[in-house]
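Standup notes
- DV: blocked on the single-chain target, sequence here:
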Amino acid sequence: MTEERLIDYDSVGLIEASVAAAPAEISVGIDDALELHPISIRLQKDLLENLKALAKLNGLGYQPLIRQVLTRWVDCELKHMLRERAEAVHEPVEAVREQAVTRANPAAESDLLPSRKAA
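- DV (later): unblocked, structure below
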């Protein structure tokens, strides 16, 4: 460790003797600042072991990893739902637009809707 680097961040928390729980008021302050709410959840042992292994590989605790996983999943689901709603709104708008173009220029109907061409 160099003089510039007074804390060896690679080993922080690895030696049990140097680890201590934060005082309650600090923990509460952190939870409040991050808007964290404690919950209880039951997980299969294999799932929990895999989460812990993945967390370790990524240099995280397993609980922050679970928060990241849940946050990513919720974000993706919300985007998917919004995309579906936007498409549902977009389709009727396109149909109205095509009708307006057809009414304004009946000759263009065959260009827009080839399936309606006369036999």
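- Follow-up: The chain has one domain: 16-116.
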